[in-house]
Amino acid sequence: MAQETPPTRRTRIVCISDTHNNTPRLPQGDVLIHAGDLTNQGSESELKKTLSWLEKTNFEAKIVVAGNHDMTLDAAFYAKHHTSWRWPTPQDPEKCRSMFVSSPSITYLENNAAAIYLSDPTGPHTCFTVFGSPCQPNKWTWAFQYERGHGAKVWDTIPPDADIVVTHTPPYGHCDTNTRDDRTGCEELLQALHRVRPMLAVSGHIHEGRGVERVLWNNDGPESGSLEASVELWKDPGTGKKQSLVDLSGRSRRPLENTSALTRHCTIPSLAQASPQYDSDIGSSSEPNVEAGERRHETCIINAAFMGPRTEGPKTFNKPIVVDVELPVWRVE
């Protein structure tokens, strides 16, 4: 007997990245995703300010990764390079990181995954699996970096059932163009997204790359010459008081051609496990996700950089990107 497919419900996800000590007012939503560069250099005072802002925001779940500027959150980097930067006082990386790890309202991810169950009676009561990483290809001397061409050791750990992937770096060729028109995203991340095919891939890092691309994956893989069958660019509707909205829900003319992996297991055994977030023991695999080719065809790739390009002129800022997407409703046995 075929397993009954659980119902889905529209869930609003607010995406932002590269706030660099700014604490902007955010639109309403169910889930907040911050894709890194919370600060300018990750001092304890900067992190406390940003953490206070995040904890006061009104979202049922808040997914946060660090970025290359959040240097004290990368203890190995700080130990090696802290003398190269001007710090107000010596910093304690363990203390800085523990502020985020121990936060009661934030899911801080560092190359790991979590299953999120929205349980507020007034909310959508939906669920999803999310993987998060602060890492990016090496460029100059920054935190959380790997040598270009060696990203697979990070991205092979993305679980095959991840519904949302949050990374500081964008994938190569998508929302990653800088002021010199160079592509600076990660090729291995793009390959991993083709394998997993999450609903959303949220990033930042390249301020000039802010935007959204809807990618239809090529089922034939790289042997056909391209991982992507087609790419649709987003036209930002966020002028004036309007939100920068991406509608992928059933209310739109073209809902996302992607089904959450949690539709297979969105019944949980007891209320004790119904908290909004918890660490998942989801296994990792670099093997192709066979099931993805059957039920996951598209990924919406988002660069949600809040701060605009770093130029000699005045600073510019972007609106957070708001995404409506269908997620499975969960229930307790």
From TrEMBL:
Residues 12-208 form the Calcineurin-like phosphoesterase domain. It comes from the Eukaryota. Residues 273-292 are annotated as: Disordered. InterPro entries: Calcineurin-like_PHP, Metallo-depent_PP-like, UPF0046_metallophosphoest. One of its GO terms (molecular function) is hydrolase activity. CDD domains: MPP_239FB (cd07379). This is Metallo-dependent phosphatase. Residues 273-288 have a biased composition (Polar residues).
